Amino acid sequence: MEDTSQHRIELEAAPQEALLSLGTAAELWGADWQSGSSGGTLLLPVVRGLWRGTERCRVSVSPTDSGSALELTVEESSHEVNRSAVVVLLFGGAGGLIVALWPFFPGLMPLLPVAVVLALAAWLLVVARLRSSHPEDFLKLVAKIDNTSSTVDQAQLEGGANE
């Protein structure tokens, strides 16, 4: 599946510091980061509800007046359905259907406790745990790491000046 979406974020750090923040974020995210001189390639694991996969991104960093701009371009993405979650949802749907139909078909009454458990299990195991992680979320993590490191650097500078 071909995807060419672009994502951009402005950082206060210099380009090399921005790449270090990106490397730290990639390590925390579980991504594969290969750094180059002014960017690199990133294999980013992503989750979109019941879909999971990876996106191969080209990363470029450029200096700006206030720091640097980090641009992430998704070049290729591959996704697959989480089959085990779909199976659990199908069983939960069958349980929900039995719960909804038993008043009209009293013969389903003996199945009612199992149906309720199946419906609740589907909710607790799948629906309540659905997550989403996109390249935008990854860039927010990079910005958070960049802000944290610049705050720490500023605190170290102020602490060194006071001593």
Write the layout of secondary structure elements.
Elements (H helix, E strand, L loop, with lengths): L5 E6 L3 H15 L2 E4 L3 E10 L2 E13 L4 E14 L1 H19 L10 H14 L6 E2 L1 H28 L1
Antiparallel strand pairs: 1-5, 2-3, 3-4, 3-6, 4-5
The CATH class of the largest domain is Alpha Beta
Major pleated sheet: 6 strands, antiparallel
Low-confidence stretches: none
Radius of gyration: 23 Å
Percent helix range? 40-55%
| Count of all domains | 2
Q: What is the CATH fold-level name of the largest domain?
A: TATA-Binding Protein
> How many DSSP helices?
4
Average of per-residue pLDDT values: 86
Order of helices and strands: EHEEEEHHEH
Give the DSSP E fraction (strand runs of 2 or more residues). 25-35%
**Shape category:** elongated
Which architecture name of the largest domain does CATH use? Answer: 2-Layer Sandwich
How far apart, in Å, are the first and last alpha carbons? 57 Å
Could you state the oligomeric state of the chains shown? single chain
Q: Tally the beta strands.
A: 6
SS content category = alpha+beta
Please give a structural write-up.
- There is one protein chain.
- It is built from four helices and six strands, in the order βαββββααβα.
- The chain has helices at residues 15-29, 83-101, 112-125, 135-162, and strands at residues 6-11, 32-35, 39-48, 51-63, 68-81, 132-133.
- The chain has two domains: 6-81 and 131-139, TATA-Binding Protein (2-Layer Sandwich); 84-125.
- Strands 1, 2, 3, 4, 5 and 6 form a six-stranded antiparallel β-sheet that branches.
